[in-house]
Write a structure and sequence with these properties.
Blueprint lengths: L4 H14 L5 E6 L3 H5 L18 E7 L2 E6 L3 E6 L4 E6 L11 E5 L4 E6 L4 E6 L7 H6 L13 H8 L6 H5 L11 H10 L13 H20 L37 E5 L2 E5 L7
Antiparallel strand pairs: 1-6, 2-3, 3-4, 4-8, 5-7, 6-7, 9-10
Zinc ion (ZN) binds next to loops.
Length: about 280
């Protein structure tokens, strides 16, 4: 699974609890050449030396990206885009052999990152943050469902002139919100009882309200339940959130109406939906 907005938020909050004030003694990188080739790790590996001796000041997340802010204007960006395991260890027992990065703090506690597929591990000075594509994408002006300015009125306003399909409105480069993926999308439109290909301009006021609530509820529930079920948090605990709709519902029936779940191809991805509850 990919680590999305709720899981990135959980990791950042947990990192804030245990990593603040810790000073980096050393680091190791492993098996990173492929990530480097596709631009997901510093081209110049020596740039990671910036981390040594730095102290962690705070950790914030936006969209799917985590920004670890250190002193001396140094940042570590972590984007476990396609899944990955980010762990905190009290000592060096039980460390996985499959790691991309290991950071050892001066108190001998350890922080490790293992990415799956693609993802970002990037050390960068604050003045160069804009050079990171993922930073620009997620730490942007685009509204986040976790912000106070994400209100029903503001959301309706953004939907007003949108003649695109609902998926491109919510997911991807042109989205009006940051951090929602195809996985969250399926869950959200099932809860809001919307056809996966409905146009934004066709939504009634009632449907806009249902969509707003569904987004809020999916994000809030995923955070409250410790992330999606395949997610592993900073302390190795598995997430408990099972999506109401998605690939996990393949071959099953809708719990609301008993119809068989179907699949549609929408915007370059598969979308599972209930043909009755989410009729066209
Ligand atoms: Zn149904």
């Amino acid at each position: 699974m990919s680590i999305e907005l709720p899981e990135a938020y959980i990791l950042a909050e947990q990192m804030n609890k245990v990593l603040i004030g810790k000073q980096i003694k050393s680091y190791d990188l492993y098996d990173y050449e492929r990530l480097q080739k596709i631009g997901f790790l510093n081209k110049n590996i020596d740039e990671f030396d910036l981390l040594v001796d730095c102290k962690i000041i705070s950790v914030i997340s936006r969209g799917n990206l985590i920004r670890v802010i250190l002193n001396k204007d140094v940042n570590l960006l972590i984007g476990p885009e396609y899944g990955g395991i980010v762990l905190y260890h009290e000592d060096n027992k039980n460390l996985s052999e499959k790691l991309h990065m290991k950071i050892i703090f001066t108190d001998e506690t350890i922080f490790t990152i293992r990415l799956k597929g693609m993802g970002l591990i990037y050390t960068v000075k604050s003045s160069d943050l804009e050079h990171s594509y993922l930073y620009k994408r997620d730490f942007s002006d685009v509204l986040s469902p976790l912000e106070d300015r994400f209100t029903s009125n503001h959301f309706s306003e953004l939907l007003k002139n949108s003649n695109r399909g609902i998926k491109s409105i919510l997911v991807g480069k042109e989205a009006i919100l940051v951090g929602l993926s195809n996985s969250a999308f399926q869950d959200i439109i099932y809860r809001a009882k919307l056809f996966p290909k409905i146009k934004g301009s066709k939504l009634s006021e009632q449907q806009k309200g249902a969509l707003f609530r569904a987004i809020k509820n999916v994000v809030d529930d995923r955070i409250r339940l410790g992330g999606k079920f395949q997610f592993i948090d900073l302390f190795g605990k598995k997430g408990q959130y099972l999506p109401a709709m998605g690939p996990n519902m393949k071959g099953k029936i809708c719990s609301d109406c008993g119809s068989g779940i179907e699949k549609l191809s929408v915007g370059g991805g598969q979308v599972y939906y209930c043909p009755l509850c989410q009729a066209e």
